[in-house]
Amino acid sequence: MKRGLLVLLGAVWLFAIAATASAQVDYENVDPTGQTITFWHQHTLDRETVLQQIVAAFNSSNPYDITVKAEYQGGYNDIFRKMLPVLGTADAPNIVVAYQNQSATYALGDGVTDMRPLVDSPKWGLSAADKADFFPGFYSADVFPSFGGARYGFPPNRSMEVLYYNIDWLKELRAAGHIGFDGPPATPEQFQQAACAATKNPYSKATTSGAIGYELSIDASRFASWTFAFGGNIFDDAANRFTYDSDAAMQAMTFLQGLFDQKCATIVTENYGDQTDFGAGRTLFTVGSSSGLPFYKSAVDEGAKFPWSVAAIPHTTPDPVMNIYGASVSIPTGHSKEADLASWIFIEYYTSPTVQAQWAKASEYFPVRKSVANELTDYFDANPAYKTAFDLLPYGIAEPPVPGYDFVRDEIASDMAAIMDGAPVAETLKTANATANEILADQLKGLPKN
Length: 450
Prior knowledge:
- This protein is an alpha/beta fold.
- The chain has helices at residues 2-16, 45-61, 76-83, 100-108, 116-119, 128-133, 136-140, 167-175, 188-200, 220-229, 247-261, 273-279, 293-302, 337-350, 353-363, 370-374, 377-382, 384-390, 405-420, 425-444, and strands at residues 36-41, 67-72, 95-98, 143-144, 150-151, 159-166, 212-216, 235-236, 241-242, 265-267, 283-289, 308-311, 322-325, 328-330, 396-397.
- It folds into 2 domains: 2-158 and 326-391, Periplasmic binding protein-like II (D-Maltodextrin-Binding Protein, domain 2), CATH 3.40.190; 160-324 and 404-444, D-Maltodextrin-Binding Protein, domain 2.
- Helix content is 46%, strand content 13%.
- The strands form 4 sheets. Strands 6, 7, 10, 11, 12, 13 and 15 form a 7-stranded mixed β-sheet that branches.
- The relative contact order is 0.18.
């Protein structure tokens, strides 16, 4: 069914493709006054509350009487699937949360606006000083060379895959002689030693029975993060192909499969079950997004109340290699120039220094502007785990921003689960890589010829 959807989308995209990268709209004399803008997002709980506060402040203060309506539409995958049937139509939202690979997929269907004329507009755009204030890697992540340098998104925040660990439990294991190192594990060997020791020696303050060293959430980003940690990548930019069968990927999956064989690791079986078990003191290690910091804090505060922190994923490389990612906000096509300009005016507000500081503190995402980071000293002091993660940003690389990666992710998650269940690593990854590159080839058939 998934491959059938790809074929169907490909048939639609092939006749819908236009040279969007070359299209430049003049917004200088456009009037955005009175526009109502719909913003599809994935935020819940406290983040949604703060986002609504940001939206309300914008609605009451902008001089153009623009009204933004922020609407929760489920998770990233839910939003992606809701977007596909409405690409290029008036039913699409004015602003949508999208990862880079998702906006690339939308671009194949001429379903997302090139934001360069807005960002660079003398009247409405960013100044040179404002542009320089963004972290370069974050600012450039939504510019697509395959689409003639079009900008299909703009970054409001970023996060990173990190290792969450129980400081107190590691100290207990060290004091008892079960592990031979201090602090968080820096290498896969140390990680294995601690995970297996924890499985046999439960945490003294745990609020639930049983113990496990590592709970693995089956996800393509976990696959990428562990592959990065073993010195490899999942994509070859020069060859424009996936490399899920690389030596590093095989080493990473063989290592994880070994933890399962030794009963030192288990798969997360329910949504955020790893957070719950970590908070209860049942699980020593988890790997997940730094955006989960507030949720881990809540889990620990409501659970075993122990000291904890984050660290780099144990690695074979001299320096850590961290998986940095984050959804941006895009402006779908299907609306008037007035609406598109109104959408950009809100995005510019959303990513302004004052609002970024508010958003970073409330969401615990990383800010995208350097000046905001410089203003977070007190916040760093009060949230040392956030500061630890922030300091790892220089070691970051990204997953591939290619169209169809959402479909690839589903395939890789299934293959990853099979490996943890005992499937042969080399054979499984060889097949997985072939499937991933077939999906990519299907998508690339629709690329505009520059």
